[in-house]
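Weekend entry, working from home. Most of the wet-lab plans are on hold until the incubator is repaired, so I used the time to fold the two sequences that have been sitting in the queue since the last round of cloning. Logging both here for the record. First:
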Amino acid sequence: MPPSRSRPATALALALAGSIGIAAAWILVAQATGRQCSWMAVVAAVDAALLLRMGRHRPGLARALSGVLATTLAIALANWGIIATEVGRMLGLAPWASMGKLGVEHAWLLARMANDAVALAWLAAGLVVAAVASR
């Protein structure tokens, strides 16, 4: 069997799509449980690593950095979506309408308030898992 060619653009597109998808699932889990569900960062990391491997991204530092970047994007999107959903619920807005109206400073303040030390540890663990699993 001939060696597979590296396809970083395909792998990065898969990782981007995966980040959006896992962030959506994370938002749904958080809304169903009424909690932040920061453990989903580890799930996002494993998902990013698998998608980068499926996209045939060449192993090494670039793939590890891509995995960490995809996981960071999933964490940011999920936190933004969870916050926007909660604020939108109070204002009578749909989550997607609230996402566009939520300001960066307000979202940052609410994210700092919502994520305690345990949640931050889960988020950090997700980034570590992404770096190790994606390499």
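Second, folded right after the first finished:
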Amino acid sequence: MDSTPAVAAYDARPEGSASLRLLGAFEVSARGETVGARWSDLPHSARRLVAFLGLHGTATRDFAAGSLWPDSTEARAQADLRTTLWRAGRACPGLIVAGGPSMRLHPRVRVDVDELQALSRRLHMGQPGQAEADGSWPPPCGVLLPGWYDEWVVVVRERVRQLQLHTLEALAEQQLGRGAYGRALDLALSAVEYEPLRESSQRLVVRIHLAEGNLAEAVRAVQTFQKLLWREIRVRPTPEFLRLVDLVVPR
């Protein structure tokens, strides 16, 4: 597991806030006046707990202890959790709010996965924010906690990956509909780069090229995807995908 945290400070007072990045890397950046607590002081177990709470929001102590220390007895796992909470509180006071049987990150800690989910919901409801509508705000992207192989990470990683791909495609569709072809193509290509064998993303790239009138680019994209699919998994694109260029290129 990656054990190198970002060096940043956190202030739990109302005017302070922090952002937790789980996509592409584990990283925390702080805003507001700091109180001197350093993330480099967080022990390995505390970083795992912070990431766990970043993914699950409010979690019971039993759930957190069982997930973070699955090979320990219940008593040992609970003891490890108490020690981790104490160490996290000592390094970054106020970062984790623990009361009774449950715990969570401080409400002013913004988590990129939460922002991605909120963006996906807004797009699904047809209510994007202004920055999203005009394409000036890139969606959070990256593999969830790369290099982390805990089961609680692995089981969520594919769901987050699919959420990112659907969000990139939805944003690309939105920009295509607005005639913002450059931004649409950038988003679609980001999805292709993330998952080259995903036909829906490749289809978007072709449609954008066609909308711009770049027939040669569209044909090249189709041919490249055909070769890639055959080389990697020995299958061919769907007829629907191939018909995208059939409409404009005689066979």
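Plan for Monday: verify the second prediction. Residues 1-15, 32-37 have pLDDT under 50 and may be disordered.
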